[in-house]
Amino acid sequence: MSKSLISVIVPCYNHAQYLSEALESVLQQTYTNWECIIINDGSPDNTDEVAKPWLEKDSRFKYLYKENGGLSSARNFGIKIAKGKYILPLDADDKICITYLEKAIDIIKKN
Description:
This protein is α/β, with parallel strands linked by helices. The chain is 41% helix and 23% strand. The protein has a 4-stranded parallel sheet with strand order 3-2-1-4, with helices on both faces. Helix 1 packs parallel to helix 2. The radius of gyration is 13 Å and the shape is globular.
């Protein structure tokens, strides 16, 4: 049985200094069928410079830029192109433990 794709949506506005840690926490997941969509919400900091190496590191990372519209607008922008059966919103200044997706998918499927 194939594993369900999870789309991790990471909006970023003025949080470039935390973004790599958030993305590293996604990359380290024990559940591997994910895509991670990074949305630069018109951030004036160096979000694009921080995000671009992640696109080269792993093809599951995707990057979008939009004019600033706020957190909800950025999340919805990413969700529109998400291909996953499930959506995980992850703020650019947060991290998830390495088994987060694995545990979440188990709970979802049991309920």
